[in-house]
Description:
Elements: E1 2-3, H1 10-24, H2 35-48, E2 51-56, E3 61-66, H3 67-72
Antiparallel strand pairs: 1-2, 2-3
Amino acid sequence: MIIPYKQLDNDTLNTLIEHFVLREGTDYGTLEMSMSEKVCQVTKQLESGDVVIVYSELHDSVNILPKSEVLKNPQ
């Protein structure tokens, strides 16, 4: 189930994004980025619709995934 990011409280959304950034260990290239820069980058991706917040009832978990991946494998 896709959770619209705008329905989340700002503190909840920021915490979710921070946990995602820490968990993913995403490669940001040769430049080091601060946590706030990474959070900002993910926030912009949510705003543009490139990524979405997904709740899995099966796993009772929340994740941020590329929209194209969610559309390929609807839950």
